[in-house]
Amino acid sequence: MMETTNPASVSSQAQARENPLSYRPLILAGLVLGLGQGGFFDGIVFHQLLQWHHMFSSIETDMTIAGMELNTFGDGLFHLFDWLLTLVGIFLLWRAGQQAKDAWSGRVFLGALLLGAGLFNLVEGILDHHLLGIHHLKPGAHELLWDLGFLGSGVLLISIGVLLIQATMKESGTLTP
Q1: What is the 3-state secondary structure (H, E, C) of 140-160?
Q2: Cα separations (Å) of 123 from 15, 35, 100, 126?
Q3: How far apart are CA 133 and CA 131, in angstroms?
Q4: Neighbours of 36 (CB within 10 A)
């Protein structure tokens, strides 16, 4: 049995090879926004709502006024960094939207956001929880398990993000981001 090929599909595939759309600006914007939002999630949920730790809680207890001042200052610096990442991500997203040659996809953008949030968890978890030891996700009993779970959530978010981006690129016939 002979397969028929849709001429419009062949034409659009040939045009895509000649003038490939790039997801790179959208991925970069989503990645930076994901890093900022991952930090905000960590700071709002773990530092403020659950109050499991503060930025320097393994260095100075938050049970004294001086310790609470240091930890509040550290949390403020942390949120400032998250805010700056978010502003840069918004600018990158705006700039990507100005380029007609760049591809747009909600699935690629979501994948990049998840990739950024996962990278945040992985990098922050390795640096702050394990290498520097300035705080743990949930100090006390089973703190290593909590810290490893945090790293695992980063790996999971990264994996989902990469799968979303790759699936969209495969469907669109794009070989590179």
Answers
A1: CCCHHHHHHHHHHHHHHHHHH
A2: 40, 10, 34, 5
A3: 6
A4: 23
Stretch 46-63: mean pLDDT: 92
Nearest C-alpha neighbor of 125 from the set 39, 67, 52, 45: 39
| Strand ranges in the chain using DSSP code E only, listed in sequence order | none
Tokens matching residue 116: 């950024």
Q: Are the beta carbons of 13 and 173 closer than 8 angstroms?
A: yes
Model confidence at 39, pLDDT cuts 50, 70, 90, reads very high
CA distance 137 to 139: 6
pTM above 0.70, yes or no: yes
**Residue 103: predicted pLDDT:** 79
Residue bearing tokens 């705080």? 135
Q: What are 56-110's pLDDT values in tens digits?
A: 999 998 889 999 999 999 999 999 999 999 999 999 999 998 886 767 889 999 9
CA 118, CA 154: separation in Å to the nearest integer? Answer: 4
